[in-house]
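Chain A, query sequence.
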Amino acid sequence: MRTDEFDFALPERLIAQYPPEQRGSSRLLYAHGGVLEDRRFADLLQLVWTGDVLVLNDTRVIKARLFGEKASGGKIEVLIERVLNEHEVLAQVRASKSPKAESHLLLAGALQVEVLGRAGEFFRLRFAAAENVLDLLERYGQLPLPPYITHAADAEDEQRYQTVFARAAGAVAAPTAGLHFDDAMLQALRDKGVWIVYVTLHVGAGTFQPVRAELIREHAMHSECYEIPQATADAIAQAHDTGGKVIAVGTTSLRALESAAHKNDGSGELQVGMGETRIFITPGYRFRVVDRLLTNFHLPRSTLLMLVCAFGGMEQMLAAYRHAVEKEYRFFSYGDAMLIGGRAGSTRRHKTMSGGARPTTE
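Chain A, predicted structure.
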């Protein structure tokens, strides 16, 4: 398939620059069976049932952007891609001239950093301080808002560009479908008998990159790390055995689940534990775990739009995007949401490799 098949015209005014006044006050486009319904996000409670499983990504966005200078005095910008251990990271480094291995940087006027070398397009950096790098980033870093948001991150962004259930620090971009949920909505879902479970996938900056290759098969995905807890695998197994639906909140949750189902010898059974994924989901993919998808509206020519088209059907999803533009839905991270009521294909499995203990909701 050609990348330009996933292009669409988006007026700049529809790119949400700020979150809605209140969490959960966004609009919701419900796409199911070829029908498009204009709803409110609060209507999600009417669209799920007892025994369904809602899978949230509990990654936490770190303050991954740092500014500083090289030893020569040249200005640099550093965007952390991944924290490797207590003192080392992989990062993008923007400078007029790339720093060399064994050179030193001064970031935020306080942090001494050594350039250890290159790792593909990233640099491996070591922070000299004895303190954990995550603590240093929290103190000296800046929140890395997406490139299409034009204002600098402020105190409101630090609260709203983070889900209320964020726990595991490591992402450089928010799992934005989760931004719509507040504690009251989560409790109302539990009260209705919906299982609330979690995965972790640390979102990398590559999520914002358009596919530049002419043919989508030529695009290379960045690697991201994920974790599937036992309780989540058990809840999914129970839902599949009893007729409940597995609803992925966001493309990141979906990618984690589908990656874990492809981790083994091809049996399609969901594997618990940690893993690395470069999974690139495009039309024709056969879904093994997820039944429904709640997601925001994504960038033209992006891997996320390709995933959505794979899940809901290409013709149907591009029609939904045209409808969203016509009805002036808000797009991207701070924008509105879409619930896709069914997937284009699946090879669902009903058991986990590690058994079927009764799941917990937390």
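Confidence is low (pLDDT under 50) at residues 349-362. The first helix runs from residue 133 to 140.
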